[in-house]
Write a structure and sequence with these properties.
By secondary structure, this protein is mostly beta strands. The protein folds into two domains: about 120 residues, Lipocalin, CATH 2.40.128; about 170 residues, Exo-inulinase, domain 1 (Jelly Rolls), CATH 2.60.120.560. Helices cover about 5% and strands about 45% of the residues. It has one helix and 22 strands. Strand 12 and strand 13 form a beta hairpin. The longest helix is centred in the N-terminal third of the chain and has 12 residues.
Length: about 300
């Protein structure tokens, strides 16, 4: 039986609830706790824990929203229903059921008859400081070896090496991340993308700036310079494959500015939530710079980060 049937059944039961039934203090006219609305950082529990994210809104008197799966980009709900403090979400053939206690969620999910437990906390606002002060630039890559960098997973070969001042990922393998973690910063990084290849620069290990061979294409949230599936650039100044390109990226709170090859393509825009492949859902914490290495050959050089100071 299709999973969306259960969500529809749940919604039908809600519709049959007598209007005279008392509402809770924070209950909306549509029958759910208004505190449910907003953005939520999710952790799937267990030995192989991983992050998710969802946003729940009201649109035209009905619930709607998106969920960020483990990989890929955020997807709109196929179905969503709520009553009181209970919620069901159906997206990408996965059913999520949760109970809301006013501050957090506890729930279970089911995909392909496999169940998992998930919890969620409200995503922090993370406003940008008005007048940040900047510290000294930090050279993240010394040009000669991988000091300060480690493979992310360790369950697959790492194809990264240093060669003549260039950080080379020869072919698909493990991702690479800094041992140091960062809060707010400016990042200068140069990248060379071979034809048809793909990588990504994860800010704090959670928000991917897409790196891809996209010369001549219309701007898109899944193309070069986009915050993957979350923010679409205003233009696409990407150069042809095999040419060196320059990113200047500023991250303050959850507000990001991206400059590509001298052109501002994202100007102080809010990143709603984590992107696919994020290390964790702890958005309020510092995190590493992570370079995606599981999508083919890519080269980086001149990686310099300037942090803010307290």
């Amino acid at each position: 039986m299709p999973r969306y049937f259960y969500a529809l059944l749940f919604a039908g039961l809600m519709a049959c609830t007598p209007e005279t039934e008392p509402k809770t203090e924070n209950e909306t006219a549509t029958g759910h706790d208004a505190g449910m609305l907003g953005r939520w950082d999710v952790t799937v529990q267990g030995e192989n824990s991983y992050p998710l994210w969802f946003e729940l809104i009201e649109e035209g008197g009905a619930l709607a929203g998106r969920l960020q799966p483990r990989g890929g980009h955020a997807l709109a709900f196929d179905a969503v229903a709520a009553a009181g403090n209970s919620l069901t979400m159906d997206v990408a053939e996965t059913m999520y059921e949760g109970t809301f206690d006013g501050d957090t969620w506890n729930g279970v999910g089911t995909r392909d008859e496999v169940s998992f437990v998930w919890t969620a906390v409200r995503a922090p606002e993370l406003p940008a400081p008005e007048n940040p002060t900047w510290g000294d630039p930090v050279e993240l890559f010394n040009g000669t070896d991988l000091t300060g960098w480690v493979p992310q997973l360790g369950d697959r070969p790492s194809e990264w090496r240093a060669e003549d001042g260039v950080l080379v990922n020869e072919e698909s393998g493990d991702n690479l991340m800094t041992t140091d973690k960062f809060g707010d910063f400016k990042l200068h990084i140069e990248v060379n993308v071979p034809a048809g290849s793909n990588s990504g620069i994860y800010l704090r290990g959670r928000h991917e700036v897409q790196v891809q061979d996209d010369h001549g294409k219309e701007p898109h949230a899944l193309f070069m310079g986009g915050i993957y599936g979350q923010i679409t650039p205003t233009s696409n100044p990407a150069l042809p494959a095999d040419e060196w390109q320059v990113f200047e990226i500023t991250l303050l709170g959850r507000w990001v500015t991206v400059e590509l090859n001298g052109e501002t393509i994202i100007d102080h825009q809010e990143i709603p939530g984590i992107t696919g492949g994020a290390l964790d859902a702890n958005e309020g914490e510092p995190g590493p710079i992570l370079l995606q290495g599981d999508h083919g050959r890519v080269l980086y050089r001149n990686i310099v980060l300037t942090p803010t100071t307290p």
